[in-house]
Each structure stands twice: as structure tokens, then as C-alpha cells.
Write a structure and sequence with these properties.
Number of strands: 9
CATH superfamily: Jelly Rolls
Radius of gyration: 27 Å
Shape: elongated
CATH architecture: Sandwich
Distance between the termini: 101 Å
Helix content: under 10%
CATH class: Mainly Beta
Number of helices: 0
Structural class: mainly beta
Length: about 140
């Protein structure tokens, strides 16, 4: 016959484990809050269904974005480098650098170019009715 020995739990070195520390809380840092475009227009969204399109633009050093306009809202976040935006309708020139957000003009011709002989990377977010484009290039 086998003998069974019962030991107190404390004798086995088992004790209640301390609770795991809580994971760190997420940190949200505002980049900006906007109610107008870069040219001062109120931000108005298309009525009805919209399609949100996100695209990444790699602008090489000395690169340019030819004259164009947007019939619907376009938002750009400058990931790296910088860009100079010239509004061809108003004549305003603005520079945006890494970490800045651009609410582009709607219905106004503008162009962009990389700053400081460096490449730039932009993340664009468009909101347009399904099947419609949000970039109209100006004919030369």
C-alpha cells in the first residue's frame, strides 16, 4: 500500500501571485483641430455616401506636384520632409513640415513642391462620393 503525504500549501512554496501590473495607458497627443481649409474656407463634407481613400505620396527632392484642385475635402499629414504649397487662385504660399497636418483648399488651384532639396512623404485622406475622383489636374 502506498503512503500519501499531504503537505500544507505553504510548505510547497506556493502562495498567491501578486497581480500583474496594469499595462500602460495609451497616450493621445493632438496634432491639431481644424474648421477651415488652409485657404480659410469652411470644411464642408459631401452629402450622401462617401468613400474614404488613403494614399501615400513620395515626393522626391526637387519634386513637384503639378497644379491641381480638389472638388472634395483632402487632408494631408506630412510624415517626413516638408512641402511648399502655392495657392494659384489666392497667391498664398505656405510651408508644412514633418508632423504637420494640411487641410487642403477645395475648388482652388494649387501646387506643391518639396522643401530644402529633401524628399517629402505625405499621407493623404480623401472623402469623395463613390466613383468620383478628388484630384483634377490643370491643363497646361
Amino acid at each position: 500500500m502506498r503512503k500519501i503525504f499531504l503537505l500544507p500549501v505553504s510548505a510547497l512554496g506556493l502562495c498567491a501571485a501578486a497581480p500583474a501590473p496594469a499595462p500602460p495607458a495609451p497616450v493621445s497627443t493632438p496634432v491639431g483641430a481644424y474648421d477651415t481649409t488652409a485657404s480659410g474656407q469652411p470644411i464642408l463634407l459631401p452629402q450622401g455616401p462617401v468613400k474614404v481613400t488613403v494614399s501615400r505620396t513620395e515626393l522626391p527632392a526637387h519634386g513637384q506636384i503639378p497644379p491641381h484642385k480638389h472638388p472634395f475635402p483632402r487632408y494631408n499629414y506630412v510624415i517626413a520632409g516638408g512641402v511648399r504649397v502655392t495657392n494659384l487662385d489666392t497667391g498664398a504660399v505656405q510651408e508644412f513640415h514633418a508632423g504637420q497636418f494640411i487641410v487642403e483648399a477645395v475648388g482652388q488651384w494649387h501646387k506643391g513642391e518639396a522643401l530644402d532639396n529633401q524628399p517629402a512623404t505625405l499621407l493623404a485622406i480623401d472623402q469623395a462620393p463613390p466613383g468620383q475622383t478628388n484630384m483634377i489636374r490643370k491643363e497646361p
